[in-house]
Structures are given as structure tokens and as C-alpha cells.
């Protein structure tokens, strides 16, 4: 029986992909690296350091660990500044509706994001009150497709994985949910999240009615 929901943040609750893109682009331009929207698409759902490593691999550049941390921090300063512009109007269409509905119906709800800035994003959205538990980039060390972040959320909610549905927009996020024994809802195109138990193009279609009809006991 489904008792809880675990939501990814970027690409599910709100879309911070554009702010990530602008911050990586600024750093890349300063460093003379090639970086475009196609490369950015590969960073969906992966950690900050893994994102930097991907960009460097793409440019066939190798740097020492100290420089990696320095550059990732530099990108994050720009990203955090951009986050100040997020407002409660910036929920992805449908996201606030399902979160409200879940609260009304008494489901347990957690966040399961890779981002170390998740708290700040939730505050900007005024979304903190929708979540019983916030799992973010500080909560676990292993990144998706490892299921650690979702297992963290389920444990804090006091639920088993098979009692929870994970919402994800990233290929590796769906892998993580399935690896942990969770039910999964993919948000995005078939090519990216078609391996989820259930898929919607956007959050606007992912109503609690649709979810309940599919996952009924
Ligand atoms: P930060 P999610 C992910 O958020 C983003 O999709 C990904 O692009 C980013 O690199 C990652 O968070 C880490 O973010 O630099 O803020 O720690 O989709 O897991 O909510
Ligand atoms: Mg995401």
C-alpha cells in the first residue's frame, strides 16, 4: 500500500536547470571551455562535482582535486546568486497542486534531491511546509543512480521503499528509485524516463487521481 511520496527537486518541483546552465556557462566562458545546452542536459540530477568532471571530460581537461573544489565553489556562488530570483510563482505547473493534495489526504512526503542548495530553493518557493523530511545533497554521500537519497527519505518517513513512490525527471534518478525497490514516476520524455513504472510528459498531468488509478492495490 502506498503511504509516502518522495520528490526530486530540480525538474519536478521547480526548474533550476536554467540557473545551473547559466552558472556553468559563465565559469566555462571564463575558463575557455566548450559548454552548451546539449552538454548541460547530461548534468540533470548529478552532483556538482560529477557535473564539473563531466564538463572537464568533455573538454579533455584534467585538473587536481584542489582546483576542482575551487571551480565548483566558484560556480556555486554564481548559482546561489541566481536562486535569489526564485519566487513562489516558480513551481512547475502541477507541482504545487499535487503537493497540496497529498497534504490534504495525509500522505507522508519527502524531498530527495542531489542538490546542496535544496533548502534555499524550498525557502524561495515557500515550499518547506509541504515536506515532512528534506533529503538533499548533504544527507548522503552516494549519488544517484545509488538509491541512498531515497532510502534516507523513506527511513526518515518510517516507511519501506515499496510503500513509497519516487518522482524523478532524470534517467539516473529513475535508476536510483528502481535500484532501491521504490515505485517510480518519470517526468519527461520516453527516451529519458521511459523506464519508470509510470511516465508523464510534465507535472501538470501527474495528478493524484492519475497516480492513485495506476498504483491502486
Ligand atoms: P547543487 P535534483 C540536481 O538537482 C540538479 O538537477 C543537478 O543539475 C545539480 O548538479 C545537482 O542537483 C547538484 O546541485 O550544485 O545545488 O548541489 O534534480 O537532484 O533536485
Ligand atoms: Mg531532477
TrEMBL record:
MF term (GO), any: beta-phosphoglucomutase activity
EC identifiers of the protein: 5.4.2.6
Amino acids binding Mg(2+): 8, 10, 168-169
Gene name of the record: pgmB
This protein's UniProt keywords: Isomerase, Magnesium, Metal-binding
InterPro entries: B-phosphoglucomutase_hydrolase (IPR010976), Beta-PGM (IPR010972), HAD-like_sf (IPR036412), HAD-SF_hydro_IA (IPR006439), HAD_sf (IPR023214), PGP-like_dom2 (IPR023198)
Cofactor note: Binds 2 magnesium ions per subunit.
Species whose genome carries this gene: Flagellimonas allohymeniacidonis
Similarity annotation: Belongs to the HAD-like hydrolase superfamily. CbbY/CbbZ/Gph/YieH family.
Signal peptide: none
Catalytic machinery residues: 8 (nucleophile), 10 (proton donor/acceptor)
Residues of the site described as Important for catalytic activity and assists the phosphoryl transfer reaction to Asp8 by balancing charge and orienting the reacting groups: 113, 144
Binding site for substrate: 8-10, 24, 43-48, 51, 75, 113-117, 144
An example Gene Ontology biological process: carbohydrate metabolic process
Name of this chain's protein: Beta-phosphoglucomutase
Cofactor(s) the record lists: Mg(2+)
